[in-house]
UniProtKB/TrEMBL annotation:
Residues 291-330 are annotated as: Disordered. It comes from Pseudomonas juntendi. Keywords: DNA-binding. The lineage of its organism: Bacteria, Pseudomonadati, Pseudomonadota, Gammaproteobacteria, Pseudomonadales. One of its GO terms (molecular function) is DNA binding. This is Single-stranded DNA-binding protein.
Length: 330
């Protein structure tokens, strides 16, 4: 469990593998399972996009006063895992607590005051019915109490810059660029997708998949090379896709869910003295074969440089992973 005094010293928990790895996610607590050590944080109305948060029930339990549908904040570390043939991002909480007002959007204040308005008027019998409650009662149909108690997702309006933040630094293990993509239903062109596997440990299966989406990501892909140390600011998200037709009775289709990190901006290079990578692991040397002082000196001309690049990373490295077997499956 992350002690309160350690929370004020980010360096004490932000470098679990000697490399920057920190984040926080705020939202609504859902489906907590303290036996399996997993809960979900819901940030939108869609339950399919709830974010899975792993935790150690003994070391980092959820506070007893935070219940289902309460707002919660998790300080997290991120790693990767294999889910069948797909690479996924996996976050684990090192501390839970209630979010503060800065994690909430501008509309939360008004919704918060309206809810208290109903409570205060209920306590003061002669104060009348508040307008917010009267408007709900005037709506046709049953379920007034359910509407009063329901969670107003629009009013919650999380501050997106303060409710989902992941920062990681590490070495590029592989990359995959998908260009000229088409929408699977109507065939219209959609954005390029660049997937980069960021490695922070000896286990290559634990590489963290980071995605960029944009109109033309080939220039960015060409800037990135296997072994390059980079820093990324992103968000923890779910890629949800229907994998069957909707059920005839329920209208619900089966979906696949792939957790991943979506970059918020362009990656930055990590210099040796930046402090983002405090410990250089021995396994990183294998990523640098063909680089630096061990690399053959390039000759003049584009053909020679292209041949050296192909030898180091594979002939299709601008659009495919740098090493065999590391193709992003998502």
């Amino acid at each position: 469990m992350l002690p309160q005094d350690a929370k004020r010293k980010p360096d004490s928990y932000s470098y679990p593998n000697g490399m920057l790895n920190s984040g926080y996610i705020a939202g609504v607590l859902r489906l907590n399972d303290p036996v399996k050590g997993i809960c979900y944080i819901q940030q939108t109305r869609s339950e399919n996009h709830m974010l899975p948060i792993h935790y150690d029930p003994k070391k980092s339990p959820i506070p007893k006063d935070i219940k289902e549908w309460d707002l919660i904040m998790a300080f997290v570390h991120t790693d990767g895992a294999m889910q069948g043939d797909d690479r996924i991002a996996r976050v684990k909480s090192i501390r839970f607590e209630a979010p503060n007002l800065m994690h909430l959007g501008g509309r939360f204040r008004d919704d918060f005051m309206r809810k208290w308005d109903a409570v205060v008027h209920a306590a003061a019998k002669d104060s009348g019915t508040p307008d917010s409650v009267a408007q709900l009662e005037q709506q046709p149909g049953a379920g007034t109490e359910e509407r009063l108690d329901s969670f107003d997702w629009k009013a919650m309006d999380l501050n997106k810059n303060a409710s989902n933040q992941i920062r990681i630094a590490g070495f590029i293990q592989a990359k995959s660029l998908e260009r000229n993509r088409k929408h699977p239903v109507d065939g219209t062109p959609i954005n390029d997708r660049l997937v980069v596997l960021i490695r922070q440990s000896k286990d290559t299966d634990a590489c963290i998949p980071v995605r960029w989406y944009g109109r033309n990501l080939q220039p960015l892909s060409e800037k990135l090379a296997r072994g390059m140390p980079i820093i990324v600011n992103g968000e923890f998200r779910m890629d949800v896709k229907a994998i069957s037709l909707p059920d005839g009775e329920t209208g619900i289709a089966e979906v696949s869910k792939i957790p991943f990190i979506q970059a918020k901006d362009m990656p930055g290079p990590v210099t040796p003295d930046s402090g983002h990578i405090k410990i250089v692991p021995g396994w990183a040397a294998e990523l640098f074969k063909g680089h630096g002082t061990q690399a053959p000196q390039p000759k003049q001309g584009d053909a020679e440089r292209s041949a050296m690049f192909a030898s180091a990373f594979g002939s299709d490295s601008a659009s495919k992973p740098a090493i065999p077997g590391e193709q992003q499956g998502a």
